């Protein structure tokens, strides 16, 4: 026995120059998508701006400069270097408001995505693994949530809970829940009959361990992609609620709320509406591009060997 | 057999799966396994041979206690397991372990080799310290012919043969008495297959393991087995010593299987015993002997009555014509 | 003149980790009506070389060849459009997984007549009649009824028969069967192999059988080409190959067969096929070879003559013993 083991040890030599690590492989696929890299770049800039808003914003976002109502951006006649992107109807600096607004948008995105993902994954894991009535009940509830137009449902929740940023976040998280549940359930159902799950069962693993330690890490790739893409949906929905007056309340510099306040000046002062709109557009676009790159990098079906 | 109780024995094991038919509410049952009895001793290899749908994988699921039998029972040492046995305790659990066919799906791709090996100990013996677990896992790696630095790698960095070594190592972590080998070399290349078979032979010699060796490859079975059970559509059709069965098969299905297996020798000429048709559905198996629609020597009686396993020429055969020289 | 002539075919894949050479200078020639087997383990490039011939590789593959001639047509200089007229008609292929090779959305009849329509034309009724005839030919019971069946309603063996029917629909001159029986049970495997041999005789087509199963090779093929790590390492008549393999790889492969085992221990072939990162400098087989010496690790192997089975080896085996290098002094060379 001993000598044969020694022989086969020497023989079972591995590939010594090990293949590239998972992170480098991930980056190789991700960086192939130029749009995704651009999206990632913009997103990083946005995060930095939001974090450093206190230091780099030229003005206080809610301070009203009484002598500077509706000052146009600097490159337009009558513009001033004090207010690069102009001011709004009560004399607040739009650039500073956008910078602070980025904080709210990212905050909403993070909270909504993590909340919806954690709850959704938990429900999806157990529904998919246990099946039977647990599955039926969970999926029918999710079907009901999915059968309403999402914004309408969010409005209903906010109407019940009362307007405000926190309640808007809860409402948006609830309407995103079904997507996570369905996605998780589908991947759990395809993983649970694989041999490695059976071997863990033969080794004596209980349901909780099987679901969380054995199965969950193998279902993460599509969930990460979904999380990235729903980050932008959350920002968009929060802006929509803010625009309808049901989300963040003035004077918070939330982008949707800024849009709503600027509605009446659309014809007289285009910059008041345009810049928050552009901010939302570019942010959502960047995150979606990034999500596409993640999908290319993580989805094994799209990988070439 | 002497009076000593065997390590593992099956007694009339049966497993049916209930399914709902196409028409509304119609209850059907798939008779995946019916009336399987066998004995397996320490250091012995029992091969279970048959084509897809013959119930060999169902047998593996019963013996490893992933599922419980619909009827019948099996015995591991002194403990009897039947349909009323609940979740097995850790001693029972540890006694039987399994190695699967496909080493690409049987290892968790998100766990490192060390974690995979240590997991059974972590679950069943949480009292063992982390350092002891790690030591045992590293020893096991060496035992199956892998190197210590493999401990921290992920399964995708290994070739098929190396993965199968890891799977064997994991199965041995609990010091089992019986190893169920479910087509352990079918997914491997020929040269690697020989390496794994040698490893299994070594491990059996060293630890006196009993193997339940499930395979469709008769040349591998002939090399590995002490005794052979040939199955067709959920039932054993021939059961006996390897040499008896390979040199002088009595059941027409065994004969057909042997003659259909290609022999790697171009100078070997043989009479092909050709089987017509396909496997019948296990939902609705043919009346009488399940093999009679494809059997070249079937008689009227075969369609009406089902033959039981009976001792003929030193092995058990279920065929009405086993005693004749056909 | 032979039907198929491949000279120095090389296929490279572009992967995230760099260029991977899957097929490395393979040459092959198949005569009219001949039965050729290509044997090799996974990663030997046996399927890839045939897929390259059929033009079925993805865009990441780069194919180069000195000569690629089928039935007098030069496939290298031919446009993809012209190539499609030949493929599926004069040259057809069947695959390992019959269940996934057929489109689950269409009936068997539709899929057979589709091939007929593309290449032969004719009226609906004649195509249908030909489809029934084909299913009869491949031994599918009740062909009229089976025409309306969907692939999932048939067993694996029946689906493989349907695949064969589609492949031979246009009376090809060459049929390439890529592991046609690997996914099937032993008794069904015997049926399908018999069918292929039978059809070859009846239709007079050449057959290339790609397989890893030495038993299948021994029982069916006339000439065998052995591939290892993308290279052809040996080519011989089947009897000679099994009696006296000239390349150490073939020899080791044959002795690893359980049925040739003496005692409980099998002679093994150590190690694994070289991958993308550990391609040796010299002979690709040297790290695993029992007979390798210094030269093998340094210089790429050269092809031996016909008497040594075209073995890609510095010292081809004869009766299991390496021949000495001509000219080069073996004395002083320490065998490693």
TrEMBL record, chain A:
Tell me which residues make up the ABC transmembrane type-1 domain: 102-291
Q: Which PROSITE patterns match?
A: ABC_TM1
Quick check: keyword Ribonucleoprotein in the entry? no
Q: Does the keyword Protein transport apply?
A: yes
The UniProt entry lists membrane topology as: Multi-pass membrane protein
The transmembrane residues are 36-57, 106-131, 151-175, 223-244, 265-290
Q: Name one GO biological process term.
A: protein transport
Record keywords? Cell membrane, Membrane, Peptide transport, Protein transport, Transmembrane, Transmembrane helix, Transport
Which GO terms label this protein's molecular function in UniProt?
dipeptide transmembrane transporter activity
Compartments (UniProt record): Cell membrane
Q: Which GO terms describe its cellular component?
A: plasma membrane
Q: Can you tell me which family this protein belongs to?
A: Belongs to the binding-protein-dependent transport system permease family.
Protein name from the UniProt record: ABC transporter permease subunit
TrEMBL record, chain B:
The record's listing under Gene3D superfamilies reads: P-loop containing nucleotide triphosphate hydrolases
Q: Can you tell me which residues the record assigns to a coiled coil?
A: none
Any one Pfam family here would be ABC_tran
Q: Which GO terms describe its molecular function?
A: ATP binding; ATP hydrolysis activity
Q: Does the keyword Nucleotide-binding apply?
A: yes
Keywords from UniProt, A to Z, are: ATP-binding, Nucleotide-binding, Transport
- Its name, as the record gives it, is Dipeptide ABC transporter ATP-binding protein
UniProt organism field: Hwanghaeella grinnelliae
Q: List the lineage, top down.
A: Bacteria, Pseudomonadati, Pseudomonadota, Alphaproteobacteria, Rhodospirillales
UniProtKB/TrEMBL annotation, chain C:
List, alphabetically, the SUPFAM superfamilies matched.
P-loop containing nucleoside triphosphate hydrolases
Domain of life of the organism encoding this protein: Bacteria
Question: What is the name of this protein?
Answer: ABC transporter ATP-binding protein
| Residues in ABC transporter domain copies | 4-254
Q: Where in the cell is it found?
A: Cell inner membrane
Query: What organism is listed for this UniProt entry?
Result: Hwanghaeella grinnelliae
- The UniProt record lists the keyword Transport: yes
Query: Could you state one GO cellular component term attached to this entry?
Result: plasma membrane
């Amino acid at each position: 026995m001993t000598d044969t083991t020694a022989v086969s040890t020497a023989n079972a030599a591995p590939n010594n120059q090990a293949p590239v690590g998972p992170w480098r492989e991930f980056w190789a696929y991700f960086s192939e998508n130029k749009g995704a890299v651009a999206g990632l770049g913009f997103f990083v800039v946005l995060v930095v701006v939001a974090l450093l808003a206190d230091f780099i914003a030229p003005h206080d976002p809610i301070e009203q400069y009484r002598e500077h109502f509706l000052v146009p951006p600097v490159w337009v006649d009558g513009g001033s270097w004090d207010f690069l992107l102009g001011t709004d109807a009560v004399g607040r600096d739009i650039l500073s408001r956008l910078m602070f607004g980025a904080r709210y948008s990212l905050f909403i995105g993070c909270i909504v995505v993590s909340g919806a993902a954690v709850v959704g994954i938990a429900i999806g894991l157990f529904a998919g693994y246990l099946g039977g009535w647990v599955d039926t009940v969970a999926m029918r509830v999710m079907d009901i949530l999915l059968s309403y137009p999402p914004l309408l449902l969010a409005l209903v929740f906010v109407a019940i809970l009362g307007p405000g940023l926190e309640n808007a976040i809860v409402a948006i998280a609830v309407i995103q829940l079904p997507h996570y549940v369905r996605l998780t359930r589908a991947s759990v159902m395809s993983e649970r009959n694989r041999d490695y799950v059976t071997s863990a069962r033969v080794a004596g693993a209980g349901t909780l361990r099987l679901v969380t330690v054995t199965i969950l890490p193998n279902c993460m790739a599509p969930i990460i992609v979904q999380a990235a893409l729903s980050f932008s949906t959350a920002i968009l929905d929060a802006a929509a609620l803010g625009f309808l007056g049901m989300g963040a309340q003035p004077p918070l510099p939330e982008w949707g709320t800024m849009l709503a306040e600027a509605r009446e000046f659309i014809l007289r002062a285009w910059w008041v509406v345009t810049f928050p709109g552009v901010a939302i557009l570019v942010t959502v676009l960047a995150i979606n591009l990034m999500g596409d790159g993640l999908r290319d990098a993580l989805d094994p079906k799209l990988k070439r060997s | 057999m002497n009076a000593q109780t065997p390590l593992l024995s099956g007694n009339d094991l049966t497993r049916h799966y209930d399914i709902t038919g196409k028409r509304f509410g119609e209850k059907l049952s798939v008779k995946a396994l019916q009336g399987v009895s066998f004995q397996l001793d320490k250091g012995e290899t029992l091969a279970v041979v048959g084509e897809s749908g013959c119930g060999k994988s169902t047998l593996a699921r019963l013996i490893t206690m992933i599922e419980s039998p619909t009827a019948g029972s099996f015995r591991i040492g002194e403990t009897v397991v039947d349909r009323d046995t609940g979740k097995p305790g850790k001693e029972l659990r540890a006694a039987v372990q399994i190695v699967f066919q496909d080493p690409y799906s049987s290892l968790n791709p998100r766990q490192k080799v060390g974690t995979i090996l240590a997991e059974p100990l972590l679950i069943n013996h949480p009292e063992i310290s982390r350092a002891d677990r790690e030591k045992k896992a590293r020893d096991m790696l060496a035992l199956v012919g892998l190197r210590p630095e493999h401990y921290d790698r992920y399964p995708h960095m290994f070739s098929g043969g190396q993965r199968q070594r890891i799977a064997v190592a994991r199965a041995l972590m609990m010091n089992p008495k019986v190893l169920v080998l479910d087509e352990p070399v079918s997914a491997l290349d020929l040269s690697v297959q020989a390496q794994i078979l040698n490893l299994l032979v070594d491990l059996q010699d060293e630890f006196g393991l009993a193997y339940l060796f499930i395979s469709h490859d008769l040349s591998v079975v002939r090399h590995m087995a002490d005794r052979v059970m040939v199955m067709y559509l959920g039932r054993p059709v021939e059961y006996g010593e390897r040499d008896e069965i390979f040199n002088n098969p009595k059941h027409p299905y065994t004969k057909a299987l042997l003659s259909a297996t290609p022999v790697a020798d171009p100078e070997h000429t043989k009479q092909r015993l050709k089987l017509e048709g396909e496997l019948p559905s296990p939902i609705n198996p043919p009346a009488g002997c399940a093999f009679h629609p494809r059997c070249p020597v079937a008689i009227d009686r075969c369609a009406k009555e089902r033959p039981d396993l009976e001792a003929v020429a030193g092995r058990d055969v279920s065929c009405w014509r086993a005693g004749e020289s056909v | 003149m032979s039907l198929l002539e491949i000279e120095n075919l090389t296929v490279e894949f572009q992967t995230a980790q760099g260029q991977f050479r899957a097929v490395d200078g393979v040459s092959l020639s198949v005569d009219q009506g001949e039965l050729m087997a290509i044997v090799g383990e996974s990663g030997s490039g046996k399927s890839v070389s045939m897929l390259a011939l059929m033009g079925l590789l993805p865009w990441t593959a780069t194919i180069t060849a000195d000569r690629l001639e089928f039935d007098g047509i030069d496939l290298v200089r031919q446009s993809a459009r012209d190539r499609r007229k030949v493929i599926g008609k004069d040259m057809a292929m069947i695959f390992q997984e019959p269940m996934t090779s057929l489109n689950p959305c269409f009936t068997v009849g539709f899929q057979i007549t589709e091939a007929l329509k593309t290449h032969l034309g004719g009226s609906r009724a004649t195509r249908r009649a030909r489809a029934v005839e084909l299913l009869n030919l491949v031994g599918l019971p009740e062909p009229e009824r089976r025409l309306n069946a969907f692939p999932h309603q048939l067993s694996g063996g029946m689906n493989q028969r349907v695949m064969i029917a589609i492949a031979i629909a246009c009376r090809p001159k060459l049929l390439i069967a890529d592991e046609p029986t690997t996914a099937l049970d032993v008794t069904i495997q015997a049926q399908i192999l018999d069918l292929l041999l039978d059809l070859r005789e009846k239709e007079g087509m050449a057959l290339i059988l790609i397989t890893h199963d030495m038993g299948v090779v021994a029982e069916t093929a006339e000439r065998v080409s052995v591939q290892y790590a993308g290279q052809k390492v040996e080519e011989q008549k089947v009897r000679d190959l099994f009696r006296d393999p000239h390349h150490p790889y073939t020899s080791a492969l044959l002795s690893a067969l359980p049925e040739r085992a003496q005692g409980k221990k099998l002679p093994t072939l150590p190690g694994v096929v070289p991958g993308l990162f550990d391609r040796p400098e010299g002979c690709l087989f040297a790290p695993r070879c029992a007979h390798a010496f210094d030269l093998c690790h340094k210089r790429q192997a050269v092809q031996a003559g016909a008497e040594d089975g075209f073995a890609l080896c510095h010292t081809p085996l004869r009766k299991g013993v390496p021949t000495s290098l001509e000219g080069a002094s073996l004395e002083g060379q320490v065998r490693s």
